[in-house]
């Protein structure tokens, strides 16, 4: 049976519903007093045929229903309609939309489109509503390689998200109690695994990550200390995730993520020890190699 025959049959059946149905739930009043004509209609048909009657959040219910009925073409059509005609609404409600679609396989086209928007301009999702994201949506974002943000900025957003989920905790980490650290560790446990700590400059690690060290797993913390203390030090327990494609902070196009010299192209390397002792190594001068670096720290600027 051709698609035209099916479409005609569908229209015929819908017409019968209009002519014979007694379950109208909408009255449309047309004209002005005293000449007003009343048209009875079904709200579900109005929503399906006109965006004027559609609550845009119902797009996702339509996609879910179409997917359940394996109406693949309809699923694709609705997604393309949103992308082509509802970009303004999508951007205004981006966090809610991203959350709805992030774990729904049928909405792959919308997922890819939203991911492209985020990777080109992360501010669309890192807004005042960012804390309302549920963990699966946040993890889907953190796992992307093409997120155009410095890793330290991603870390700070994750901390803000954790605070949004624990509203009773003071934003000032110096005021946290042991219970606060334990609550944040539980909240951020999975997110921490997605942070590419080894791509964070040492001075940013010192000021922006180290204060939260109590929520970092012991093995990861030990690997980070090894990484910052020992030239060419390789983590023992933690896989080193590559830099995100948008993060060019340390890369000159030839260095590998684990190359120590690549890590000191733009920043001085600081040594971080578990006893709160912080030491600084001399920055490599042009023409020098790692073997020329002094084996002992040049200065100490912190104490136990």
Query: What value does the Rg take, in angstroms?
Result: 28 Å
Shape: elongated
Strand content: 5-15%
- Can you count the beta strands? 5
The largest sheet is: 3 strands, antiparallel
What count of structural domains? 1
**What sequence of helices (H) and strands (E) makes up the elements?**
HEEHHHHHHHHHHHHEEE
Tell me the structural class.
mainly alpha
**Overall pLDDT, averaged?**
74
Span from first to last CA?
A: 82 Å
Helix content: 40-55%
Unreliable residue runs: 247-304
Record the strand order, biggest sheet.
3-4-5
The total count of helices amounts to: 13
Protein name: 8_t:CDS:1
Organism: Cetraspora pellucida
Descriptive report:
The chain is mostly helical and 304 residues long. The protein has one domain (25-30, 37-300). Helix content is 46%, strand content 7%. The chain has 13 helices and five strands. The strands form two sheets. Strands 3-4-5 form a three-stranded antiparallel β-sheet. A two-stranded antiparallel ribbon has the order 1-2. Strand 1 and strand 2 form a beta hairpin. The longest helix has 18 residues, at 3-20. The chain is elongated and about 85 Å long. 20% of the residues are buried. Residues 247-304 have low confidence and may be disordered.
List the helices and strands and how they pair.
Blueprint: H1 3-20, E1 26-32, E2 35-41, H2 43-49, H3 58-68, H4 72-85, H5 87-92, H6 94-101, H7 108-120, H8 135-142, H9 151-165, H10 178-192, H11 202-209, H12 218-229, H13 260-263, E3 270-272, E4 278-280, E5 299-300
Antiparallel strand pairs: 1-2, 3-4, 4-5
Helix pairs in contact: 3-4, 9-10
Protein name: 8_t:CDS:1
């Amino acid at each position: 049976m051709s698609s035209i025959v099916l479409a005609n049959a569908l229209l015929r059946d819908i017409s019968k519903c209009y002519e014979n149905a007694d379950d109208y739930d909408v009255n449309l009043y047309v004209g002005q007093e005293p000449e007003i004509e009343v048209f009875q209609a079904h709200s579900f048909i109005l929503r399906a045929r006109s965006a004027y009657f559609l609550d845009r959040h119902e797009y996702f219910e339509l996609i879910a229903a179409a997917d359940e009925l394996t109406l693949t073409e309809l699923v694709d059509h609705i997604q393309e309609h949103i992308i082509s005609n509802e970009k303004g609404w999508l951007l205004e409600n981006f966090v809610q939309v991203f959350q709805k679609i992030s774990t729904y396989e049928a909405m792959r086209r919308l997922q890819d489109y939203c991911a492209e928007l985020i990777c080109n301009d992360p501010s669309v999702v890192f807004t005042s509503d960012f804390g309302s994201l549920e963990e699966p949506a946040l993890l889907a974002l953190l796992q992307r390689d093409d997120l155009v943000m410095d890793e330290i900025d991603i870390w700070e957003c994750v901390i803000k998200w954790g605070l949004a989920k624990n509203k009773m905790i003071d934003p000032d980490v110096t005021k946290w109690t042991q219970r606060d650290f334990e609550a944040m560790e539980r909240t951020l446990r999975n997110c921490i695994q997605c942070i590419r700590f080894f791509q964070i400059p040492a001075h940013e690690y010192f000021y922006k990550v180290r204060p939260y060290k109590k929520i970092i797993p012991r093995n990861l913390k030990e690997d980070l200390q090894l990484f910052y203390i020992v030239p060419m030090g390789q983590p023992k327990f933690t896989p080193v995730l590559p830099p995100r494609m948008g993060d060019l902070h340390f890369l000159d196009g030839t260095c590998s993520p684990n190359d120590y010299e690549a890590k000191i192209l733009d920043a001085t390397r600081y040594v971080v020890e578990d006893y709160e002792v912080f030491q600084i190594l001399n920055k490599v001068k042009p023409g020098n190699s790692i073997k020329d670096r002094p084996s002992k720290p040049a200065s100490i600027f912190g104490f136990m």
